[in-house]
Amino acid sequence: MAVTGDLVALTAIEAAEKISGGELSAEEYVGACLDRIAAIESTVHAFVHLDPGEALSQARALDERRRNGNAIGPLHGIPVAIKDIFDTADYPTECGSALLKGRRPMRDSTIVARLRSAGAVIIGKTVSTEFAYFHPGPTRNPHDLERTPGGSSSGSAAAVAAAMVPLAVGSQTNGSVIRPASFCGVYGVKPTHGLISRSGALILSEALDHVGVFARTLADSALILEVLAGYDPNDRDTRPVAAPNFLERLAEDPPVPPRIAFVRTPVWDTADAATRSAFEALAGQLGDSVVALDLPDSYAAGWDDHRTIMAADMAHRLTAVVERGGEGGSSQMLRDLLAEGSKVSAMRYLAARDAARRYRLGLDEIFGEYDAILTPATMGVAPKGNATGSPAFCTFWSLVGLPAVTLPLLNGEGGMPLGVQLIGQAGDDARLLRTANWLNGRLAV
Amino acid sequence: MAVTGDLVALTAIEAAEKISGGELSAEEYVGACLDRIAAIESTVHAFVHLDPGEALSQARALDERRRNGNAIGPLHGIPVAIKDIFDTADYPTECGSALLKGRRPMRDSTIVARLRSAGAVIIGKTVSTEFAYFHPGPTRNPHDLERTPGGSSSGSAAAVAAAMVPLAVGSQTNGSVIRPASFCGVYGVKPTHGLISRSGALILSEALDHVGVFARTLADSALILEVLAGYDPNDRDTRPVAAPNFLERLAEDPPVPPRIAFVRTPVWDTADAATRSAFEALAGQLGDSVVALDLPDSYAAGWDDHRTIMAADMAHRLTAVVERGGEGGSSQMLRDLLAEGSKVSAMRYLAARDAARRYRLGLDEIFGEYDAILTPATMGVAPKGNATGSPAFCTFWSLVGLPAVTLPLLNGEGGMPLGVQLIGQAGDDARLLRTANWLNGRLAV
Q: Does the reported pTM lie above 0.90?
């Protein structure tokens, strides 16, 4: 029988196979993850709510179901960590805010319900920055405790990176999945806007919010995306179309060698010198597969359009609760943003929303010719200190709602991980994963 | 063979049957309508673009197609008048504004393309108020030339009322289908928001704009709605679901006697005394089928929410073109609205959009118990003079996007027509038409 150390090194797919085949019980596997958490949580601080008894009881119930010959789902017995902005009926959901201390939702969010239906164990709730915005929580980067894990899905990224769990769910309004995944050296996927329901989640901006996932392999990302994707009448940005079979598509060979557009973007100069040269080298290494491409000049306004929409939508959503909390209840950073958002005019807001649509239509042309856009995930490796780092390399892709994945293929300062971001065509998340898998094959050692 | 006078009295369904059976040619029928237009257009002023030669040439081509044994559509040879805010490739589209004088679109709007595919003859473009807002065009009410036909779909309502055409298309952002239909004594239908595509139409507000229809019978309304309804990838408020068979549903007997909620609404006191007593009498006449019901008090804010959304959306859409035109290019009324809209904050706008969703959800409860809401279409009969009258009895139903139909069942001052408005559940336009047909049977003489 496997020892604890071995078990937490399993991928979700390996563990699910062993559990499905009876080689491993959900209780043993969840127990191994809980042991790992117990050993390092006091230094990493990934979780805000954790109830080992409740997690083990879910696992035992799943083992019982399997023993009784019931059908089992694709995540049967797999522990998944959930960012604490998604409602759970069994744990509090506090959204990283003192104002919501002790809040206990009545019902699971749609993504939690889907995970449970697939047999997952909801192992606990992970640290989010305050209201999924910038003010950091206590989580540290498992690769270097002096550094930030990034935000806002800080705990989810750190928990996967530290092998506390094989899978975690986060969210991205600006750069909150791709950035912490890059900083923590794991795979992060922010799928097409509307692929995954946000019903029962903290909403900052319906236009910008995406549910995303963290895993230590691309195939594990595909496994959980397949469970999460789908139409939900309670999220009007989801669509009543069948979700693709991500795992199957991921494993396919591309019919022709993918063509990649290397897009530096208007924030290129904000990346540090090491990152810039790492990406130039990477593009060079890929040879004919990669062509450098500039976005149209007008797209530089996209960063301000994103800021406008985010500030106005968050002011709309959060002003009442933050005002009730007074000055002590929230960070100055958040209150400043809400004040900024309250000053946005409807005309400016609507113009920014229209601009986002125009950028998206324009990008469709690129995807007529290229399979994916290659660009940095972050300006560099995770910075030291508390600040969660800049989302600038994610902002534009959140604005246009295109699927993005970051691959932990590079290393920077101090050996810290640095993500390689690929962007795909809206709605074609499966092709993006296939292209990412191809890139992995080309570059992985 | 029928004489001209008889032909224009035909319903669209009757005419389509005769044309389909070879008893009448499209050329004869369109010719009869053109004769009728020639006789009275100089007093009614329903059309802004009319080219009899072009209309007859469409009709002859349709006759030729039928003679050659080709399949024919449900509107084969039926002339339809189009509000001049819908793009047409064969006529200018000027949206009632001097600023767009001579504008010639390259392509048909989706609704015009759908009509052509169904065999309709696009007979001409009808007068719209300036940018489908309040500033009136030259159209007069066929029942009394001293009175307004209502707006903004002035020409479409008047053309159907004057038997120039059996069918016409209009649009409603506030009360621009239901009000002119009520004033002109014809059936008007404003279907569920998103049932009919607005691609290629002047957009004032994606949230509030609806395509609607005018006809002299309910069955004719159903006939054209069936042609117009449907998913259009170019209008993201349309849905990829099959449109119902309106004609078939209309003719069904309700499985149980419909229950009607008589809703006076917060604007009840703005209706004139004759209208209020006519509706009280009507509700009484329907006996047990009707129950008086009040909307929740909070819904009174809906009228201001509508104004907020309309002003901000129109400021977003029209400010640039109106500013280019200077003071002489547009009405003071329009410029005042745009100035008002430019001052709306994004937070106020987003709150109004949220409120509209809340009202709609609340109304769903009413439709769990009632088949339709009964309420006046207008404050009273068409007023004298140029002003197009108040849309107040339509405003709330435009805000929430519920289907509305007005039936020309009452008469008021000077024998002028007065519409009876029924509101149905979102998405169940077919049931609303069936209920309207039942009401017709109960009340028609």
A: yes
